[in-house]
């Protein structure tokens, strides 16, 4: 500002017009600065107040299921030997609990432009012949369950699972693929939730980690409901398992 006023000797003639020009220039510059500052504040406000769903959309690759994302804080109960419907040696209850986790149904997927032999729904089910697909969370849970079944294979009959009712060599191939699937998923999500160590008499090291920590989680029930509501209601596709071919 000062530099333009400093040039004012009088308000007349050539120099006056020049001064008017310079002060307009300065005001224009100041106005743009103000607009810029205000929009930055507004923009930051927008970022800080984006709804969970808006943030989820920003932080995820595209998925039609993103609309089902809800967040809630969950306090994990995960100490050594903590029992849950999913833990321990196989029983009718554990098998049912795990079965309900990975939905073995197929879903209408997205359109893909690339020329690949995508599996399409018959026009009797879908006039636009949508491609058949699934969602990674269910594939990852399937993988965890496959590894679990492999661990307990001497204690339960898992021969209905095609991945385990295969040659020894192929079973290892499937198991290894599932271990890689979970490694990729875990490193991808990079859970930063901290846990603490505490002293504990009677343990081998005299200490133990406290894994009963609070996590911010996507509501799995909400995702499951969405997936079930959008599944293909057709026996041929409902029976299809997530994996393997
Ligand atoms: C684990 O829990 C079971 C049943 O609650 C108990 O019988 C067993 O001794 C526990 N094992 C260890 C290592 O704490
Ligand atoms: C796929 O594309 C067709 C043709 O453009 C469209 O009619 C159909 O709704 C699309 N399907 C999905 C799942 O987006
Ligand atoms: C396991 O595989 C064998 C050989 O392919 C087949 O005959 C049998 O029916 C399968 N068992 C089950 C329970 O699917
Ligand atoms: C462990 O045992 C020692 C000696 O008996 C005792 O002083 C200490 O308080 C115990 N620590 C915990 C965490 O229980």
UniProtKB/TrEMBL annotation:
<protein>
    <submittedName>
        <fullName>Uncharacterized protein</fullName>
    </submittedName>
</protein>
<feature type="transmembrane region" description="Helical">
    <location>
        <begin position="20"/>
        <end position="43"/>
    </location>
</feature>
<keyword id="KW-0472">Membrane</keyword>
<keyword id="KW-1133">Transmembrane helix</keyword>
<dbReference type="Pfam" id="PF11807">
    <property type="entry name" value="UstYa"/>
</dbReference>
<dbReference type="InterPro" id="IPR021765">
    <property type="entry name" value="UstYa-like"/>
</dbReference>
<keyword id="KW-0812">Transmembrane</keyword>
<dbReference type="GO" id="GO:0043386">
    <property type="term" value="P:mycotoxin biosynthetic process"/>
</dbReference>
<comment type="similarity">
    <text>Belongs to the ustYa family.</text>
</comment>
<comment type="pathway">
    <text>Mycotoxin biosynthesis.</text>
</comment>
């Amino acid at each position: 500002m000062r530099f333009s006023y400093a040039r004012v000797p009088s308000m007349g003639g050539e120099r006056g017009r020049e001064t008017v020009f310079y002060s307009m220039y300065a005001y224009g510059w100041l106005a743009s600065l103000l607009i810029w500052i205000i929009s930055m504040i507004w923009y930051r406000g927008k970022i800080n107040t984006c709804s969970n769903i808006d943030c989820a959309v920003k932080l995820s690759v595209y998925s039609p299921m993103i609309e089902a994302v809800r967040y809630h804080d969950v306090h994990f109960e995960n100490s050594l030997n903590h029992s849950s419907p999913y833990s321990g040696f196989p029983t009718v209850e554990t098998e049912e609990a795990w079965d309900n986790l990975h939905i073995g149904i197929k879903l209408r997927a997205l359109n893909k432009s690339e020329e690949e032999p995508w599996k399409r729904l018959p026009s009797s089910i879908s006039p636009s012949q949508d491609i058949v697909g699934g969602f990674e969370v269910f594939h990852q849970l399937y993988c965890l369950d496959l590894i679990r079944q492999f661990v307990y294979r001497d204690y339960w009959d898992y021969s209905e699972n095609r991945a385990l009712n295969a040659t020894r060599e192929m079973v290892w191939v499937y198991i290894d693929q599932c271990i890689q699937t979970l490694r990729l998923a875990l490193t991808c999500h990079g859970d930063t939730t901290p846990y603490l160590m505490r002293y504990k008499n009677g343990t081998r090291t005299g200490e133990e980690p406290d894994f009963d920590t609070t996590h911010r989680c996507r509501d799995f029930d909400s995702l499951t409901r969405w997936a079930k509501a959008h599944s293909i209601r057709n026996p041929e596709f409902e029976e299809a398992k997530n994996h393997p071919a």
